[in-house]
Fold this sequence. Notes:
With 286 residues, the protein is an alpha/beta fold. It has eleven helices and eight strands.
Amino acid sequence: MSEKPKTHQQSLKIPKPILITAKITEAISPKLAMKFAAKLFTSPIKHKLPKREIGMDKNSLQQNVFIQNLGKEIVVYNYGSSDKKILLVHGWSGRGTQLVKIADEMLKLGYSTLSFDAPAHGKSSGKISNMAEFIVSILELEKKFGPFEYAIGHSLGGMSILNAIKRGLNVKKAVIIGSGDIVEDIMDDFIEKLGMNIAISKKMKASFEKKIKEPMDNFSAYRAAKEVTIPVLVIHDKEDEDVPVKAAYHIRKNLKDGELVITEGLGHRKILGDTKVIKKIIEFLN
């Protein structure tokens, strides 16, 4: 735990045609480049359902739920039949069955889980989304299906849970795995990966802030962490190439009641199915 956090680059592989388009639009017009980058930044990729998630997909009760504040419909997964419910939140370009290994263990402990495909993710309709829509969805699902005992989130899902708790989500404990932290850092990293000038990130940030009428930093995980009083378990891998491990240290530093677990060799996604990680989650929740 005492080791200094290393900074890792994201593993995001951007297709060459997109990199070329980014360079061309930047050469033509910074404004055009910003719009191009913003569209990419808010467009999740829908992946094919992996074999390991088929069981949860088949055995969960699925329904379309309209989120009034967004004017969008999302797919919700009720997994198990217990009245004691745990909310699971996937990350960017993820889906409601992504935390299947954790969900299966929660069922064995006598819980049921509720998860969802965020707008424009998985089976939910649409092409564009953002973290604000994750947060609104969480709060609406609590009204419709809550209360939840605990909340467990991966990556952007972890950030969204902390922000939802800040905005009223009522759970006894939370677990965040591979969570991002500072929104501006995430945007800067994305722009660098596109091979664009960092100034484009600043323009994109200003554009988003104009739309939402509040600073983007309000959605940073460390900011939300300062207002979270319940126990939170922060899990992150040293070799996470999507989100640098320094995010976990910074979030933990700002939590009133936090526990930090740093793993090795699991990266950003394998961590979700690791036996030792799941055992640690169970110990924490119990």
